[in-house]
Amino acid sequence: MAAELKSEFSYETELVKSSGGVFEVEFNGKLIFSKATLGRFPEDGEVMELLKKEA
């Protein structure tokens, strides 16, 4: 996903290690995807579409 973000938007990414299966994506300080909230990992391309809406 990091390579896709760099290619599509030229964004640098940061992986923040955690435990317990947490998977969250923030953009400009805003939570745009949360596995804890939705109870699932994102579908292919879902995070990219969410970022396009925010950019």
Mean pLDDT: 88
CATH topology heading: Glutaredoxin
CATH class: Alpha Beta
* Major beta-sheet overview: 2 strands, antiparallel
Q: Quickly count the domains.
A: 1
CATH superfamily: Glutaredoxin
Distance between the termini: 17 Å
Q: Helix/strand-derived class?
A: alpha+beta
Question: What's the total number of strands?
Answer: 2
Shape: globular
Strand line-up in the sheet with most strands: 1-2
Number of helices: 3
Low-confidence stretches: none
> Strand portion, in percent?
15-25%
Radius of gyration: 11 Å
| Helix and strand element order | HEEHH
Percent helix, as a range, is 25-40%
**Proper CATH architecture:** 3-Layer(aba) Sandwich
Overall description:
This protein has helices spanning 2-9, 35-38, 46-54; strands at 24-27, 30-34. It starts with a helix and ends with a helix. The protein is globular and about 30 Å long. It has a two-stranded antiparallel sheet. The chain has 55 residues and is of the alpha+beta class. It has one domain (2-54): Glutaredoxin. The model has no long low-confidence stretch (mean pLDDT 88).
